[in-house]
Amino acid sequence: MRSIPVSIVGFILVGLAYARFSYAAVLEPFGTNTSDTVMTPSDDDPEEIILLGNVRLAFFDHRYKSIWIAPNGYLTFGQSLNSFSPETPFPNEHVMLSAFWSDIHPKVCSDAAGGNQIYYRQETDKAGRLLTGVTTQIRNALPQYRQFRAKWAAVVTYDRVVEFGMSCNMSLQSAPRNTFQIILTTDGTRTFGIFNYEKLEWIEHYGQYASGGFNAGDNVNFHEMEGSFTADFGNVVQRSNVNVPGQWIFRLDKQQIEDTSCSQNDLSNVVASIAPRYGSIFGGNEVVISGVCEDPDLLSREVILCKFGRQVVTGERSHDSIVRCIAPPLAGKGPTMVLVSVDGGLTYPHTVAYSYGE
Fold first, then answer.
1. Alpha carbons within 13 A on the beta-carbon side of 51
2. Is the distance from CB of 130 to CB of 120 less than 8 angstroms?
3. Minimal CA–CA distance to 73: which of 245, 188, 202, 192?
């Protein structure tokens, strides 16, 4: 395990084959001190791990008892894949989760540069640091899942990895390095993927840019991260869909992909949800509504309103995709539609269900 310095650095070297971005996203501890397994150095060959604790991990509409870890920045389900670079953008026939799909070449070198290894481990201790940590991260980032409690998690760390073609000499010591993590976790029903990017110092290999996302393998359902296959992909280190630079969290067990990121090109794909989903008929409790994106045309003129049935209350924004409102009293109990406006009531494009009880 090594300590992660808190620093913010970012620059682009114009005309070269890589961009440097280092925002020191908080990584889960890794290395031999955390009982990680070190992946056997290879060119493209993946390693299969059987999931502990009789876990059957839900990914889209299937469940899996093992995963394959590939040296080239991705995980696959159902079968292995040894592709060193993306053949085509998603969708395709591969069932996979990718944080940085490109031609990585892990190898052990006896030099001062260090790193260039891949570590992985899985845990089932609900009181352990990894499971309690990912539970807190998901609850904080996605308030509609405040009841989520991880029962299994795996973390794969690509530590200061270089692109294929670097050799164990001065070229490797001075080579651009990438450090990032893929975390999978489940409570037995819901599955989440977390990408943590500490730094990406190279994003292009032999003229092809890296990509990221996840794919159901049915040539229909997929999610491709913003900037994939372009020079913009390096900006995933600066960006986020959970307001934590360098961190991305996705729910993976449903065909309807949940992404509350407001950096998407098509904001109509952002799914609105509410937490908690019920409250007293006397009102007074705070509700958090995710997936309500800022309108760039409104900027400082934004006015948040939440309409509970016929009653309208003023809300406030706490994130570029999250607003908060206090539920008003309501005469009667049962389901109520909550409409959300960001333009002072001119339009109410977001609708979520809320229930009043006793």
1. 22
2. no
3. 202
SS3 content of the chain, % helix, strand, coil (to 5): 10, 40, 50
Determine how many CB atoms are found less than 10 A away from the CB of residue 329: 12
Phi, psi of 180 (to 5 degrees): -160, 165
Q: Can you name the residues that pair with 314 across neighbouring β-strands?
A: 305
Distance of alpha carbon 306 from alpha carbon 297, whole angstroms: 20
Half-sphere exposure (CA, 13 Å, Cβ side) for 156? 27
10 DSSP β-pair partners: 21
The CA-based angle 30-35-37, given to 5 degrees, is 80
Residue burial 166-202, b: 16+ Cβ < 10 Å; e: rest: beeeeebeebbbbbbbbbbbbbeebbbbbbbbbbbbb
| Encoded amino acid at 12, one letter | I
> Could you list the mean pLDDT of each consecutive 10-residue stretch along the chain, which spans 358 residues?
28 33 71 91 84 92 93 93 73 90 79 78 94 94 87 96 73 82 95 95 90 89 88 91 88 69 52 77 85 80 92 87 87 82 92 82
DSSP codes of every residue in 305-335 = EEEETTEEEE-EEEETTEEEEEPPP-SS-EE
Please tell me the pTM assigned to this model.
0.71
What is the β-pairing status of strands 278-280 and 350-357? Answer: parallel
108: left (phi over 0), alpha (psi -120 to 50) or beta: beta
